[in-house]
Amino acid sequence: MITLKEFQKDIVDKLLSFIAPEYRVNELVIKAPTGSGKTICLLSWINDYISTTHDNVAFVWFTPGAGELEEQSQDKAKNFSSIKPQSVDDALLHGFDNGTVTFINYERVVGKKSKAMLTDSERDNLDDKIEKAFQQDRHFILVIDEAHRNDTKKARDIISRFKASKTVRVSATIDDPKTPDISEFYEVSEESVISSGLITKSVVVNEGININLEVQDEFEILFEAAEQKRREIVQAYSDNNVQGVNPLVIVQLPDKSDSEAELVTRVEDYLNKKLGKNYEDGTLGIWLADKKRNHLDVTNLNNEVEYLIIKQAIATGWDAPRAKILIKIREKMGEAFTIQTIGRIRRMPQPQQGHYEVDVLDNAYLYTFDSDFLNGAFAQGGAVVPTPLLRLKDKARGLKLVSERIINESEEKSEKVILQNLYEGLKRDWGLTDNFEANRNTVDNIGLNIGRTIKTTYKQGRFDTLKHTDRLQDLNRQVEVDYRGNRLDLLHAFHELDRVIHLPISKVEAILKRFFLKDGRPKKETLLQLDAQEWTAFILNHWRALREEFRKIDVEKAMVLELENIQQNDFSLPLEERYTYNPKIEAEPVYSSAYEGYSTASIAVRPSLVERLLERYLENRDDVDFVYKNGDKGPQYFSLAYGTNGGRSHFYPDFIVKMKNEDIYIIETKGGETYSGQDKNIDAYAPAKYEALKNYAKRHGVKWAFIRDYDEKLWYLNDGEWCDEMGNENWKPIDNLFNQYLIPLS
After folding, report:
1. C-alpha–C-alpha distance, residues 313 and 310, integer Å
2. Is residue 744 predicted with pLDDT exceeding 50?
3. Which of 12, 175, 650, 683 could form a disulfide with 385 if both were Cys (CB 3.0 to 4.6 A apart)?
4. Is residue 146 domain-resident?
5. CA–CA gap between residue 171 and residue 147 (Å, rounded)
6. Is residue 552 part of a domain?
7. Phi, psi of 410 (to 5 degrees)
8. What is the C-alpha radius of gyration for the chain, rounded to an integer number of angstroms?
9. Domain boundaries, position 283
């Protein structure tokens, strides 16, 4: 018999109240920290409802595909006497009987890759079984588990087929949709779960690491500290008579890496040779898509595996309460997944026991040098989240424009031209010559030091809830670089540079080696002759300076485009759209928006001051029909082509404005000037984009402007050449932009 904690009883009570037919809304969104036992709460609620009512109902429980979560939940459901659990295959055979709970993996019904996907005939059969249930006057109640995932059109289509009378969405990373007439939000606090003893009191970050340890790979520093901590935990279990719990260390590899196989081998070799963990004696396990060993039963408390190598796929829905330590090897990841991952090590292994009141046993331990990973997690908390789907207003459906796009940029770029432009630009701007030794001194004099070490930042300390992560300290360390060991860091630098020079990462690397690496074959474009270690450190320490220099050179070489080589497509506003917004603030409708439900909570989170000012300005004009805030990436959004170094690219103008007199304005915004004259425009490509928009407007008969802010007032430019100085007479107050064309409304 499962005994619920007080906060879990509150969840069940809330669900029982919500499911009543007379309850005012039909959707409940529950945010509960990982480890709060949401699956048990949901099953207890379903069991209580089925056992105490005679309702003709079938429950359908959707889970994401990773980690076989639907099988885990189905197995747990067998412990509840009133629940008849079944799989989607059972439903295809027998239908959705009264009192059944059908566990459906999203990937089974919307995926395409696996052989286990439903066939077309099975999909038809599923629809037949749903229709048969309706004919028997049966209604459906849906549970959307890990609701932050699979919010796709295909997933929504499957969900809609059940025509659910009630829907419950649960996740650790979902936030208040702020749609009280449609969805009610219920949040379980981290504090209540901690006090119940279900999750650890704190997460301890990078405790006991020795940054001065001489290692071949930086991750060895993390492993040394983690192994010491694992042994402390083992001893503490023994000292406190805790039996049958073998603490697990999770080693999380980057989800996407060009050197994945090599990295796996290096980690395996280190664990085997330095720590004595291997597959043969069962102390090491691995659970990757293409490599699995010792992964079965690894979640059991007394399983012999001490280290488990994983990637992202195992994070969501995977439950191993004995996991106490996470080693996260560096790479940027999405914040939602970050929080899920940290939650994997916060479960207490014996939930009925709760906390042991022994510090080393009542905490979880995280070892990582990935500050981006941590910052992503700590920034989470609902400040900025996606809106529910917003529908396009009828009056905005008729807008038609022609969008320009560069489909295959690699074909539009000349590697030779780019190489030559960059070489000449660096040589000129840095004052370099053909004397490599003299160039070393020149580079050093402009602040670009040459050496074999890099400066990195890492975090250390402990926190209980995400609200208290400011308790962590930022610490610096000097690290001797290694081309192989710092490969992931180099790939990140190459990726940042490819955004500027418009070439694949492999070509970026080749250019940087040609400029700076000594390989025994001096080339025409060589500027420095650095050894491999110096070259690695130079790139990692100075990629930001290189990026700004490359961008400057790119802008200088921008050219006028030949339009016949640009793909042109008909453009209409998307019928549905999401925008980020702040659910914590009081919001008012924005009536000028092209979308129903758009509010000032979306304007408030825009990082650009000029965008916020412009949206508020347009909302206060009576002559505006609607305003469309354009997206910034993807073929579904409006884009214009412009010239770059050696080729072409495209950008996404910020706003499309339709006036009541039928005038259409395409508006691009840029940072303005402060009262003291400081330039806030950071877009070096503004002149090229300005020319592209000017030429587009002339060809297509629309109005246009570049808009900037000065002392929080808006000014526009749409005449003559681009001019950075807003004191120029061509920059005019924004009222002039619209009033010069408008016929006063009667």
Report:
1. 8
2. no
3. 175
4. yes
5. 5
6. yes
7. -60, -30
8. 29
9. 199-379
- Asked whether residue 42 is assigned to any structural domain, the reply reads yes
CA distances from 646 to 183, 549, 643, 684, 689 (A): 51, 16, 8, 16, 16
Picking from 44, 11, 40, 43, the residue whose alpha carbon sits closest to that of residue 28 is 11
Alpha helices in 184-240, H assignment, sequence order: 190-196, 219-239
Q: Which two tokens stand for residue 179?
A: 């749609």
Return the structure tokens found at 661. 């007199």
Q: With beta carbons less than 8 A apart as the criterion, state whether 383 and 177 touch.
A: no
Q: Give the list of residues 6+ apart from residue 74 with CB closer than 8 angstroms, or none.
A: 85, 86, 87, 103
Q: What is the pTM of this model?
A: 0.60
Domain containing 712 — which CATH number? Answer: 3.40.1350
What the block records as the tokens of 187 is 């949040």
Are the C-beta atoms of residues 314 and 293 closer than 8 Å to each other?
no
pLDDT per position as a tens digit, 545-582: 998 888 878 766 554 455 556 788 999 999 999 888 87
Contact (CB, 8 A) for 299 and 319? yes
> Which are the contacts of 726, defined by CB distance < 8 A and separation ≥ 6?
672, 673, 708, 710, 715
Q: How far apart are CA 225 and CA 228, in angstroms?
A: 5
Residue type present at position 14 = K
More confident of the two residues 377 and 12: 12
Pairwise CA distance, residues 344 & 252, whole Å:
11
150 with 210, same domain: the answer is: no
Q: Which two tokens stand for residue 222?
A: 């993390």
Strand 647-651 to 640-644 pairing = antiparallel
The reported pLDDT for the residue numbered 176 is 73
* HEC profile of 77-146: HCCCCCCEEEEHHHHHHHCCCCCEEEEEEHHHHHCCCCCCCCCHHHHHHHHHHHHHHHHCCCEEEEEECC
Token digits of residue 391 = 């529908």
Q: What is the DSSP letter of 387?
A: P
Q: What average pLDDT does the segment 696-708 reach?
A: 95
Gap between the Cα atoms of 314 and 311, Å rounded: 6
Provide the pLDDT for residue 647. 61
Q: Say if CB 413 and CB 502 are below 8 A apart.
A: yes
Number of separate domains in the chain: 4
Contacts with 213 (C-beta within 8 Å, 6 or more apart), sequence order: 220, 221, 224
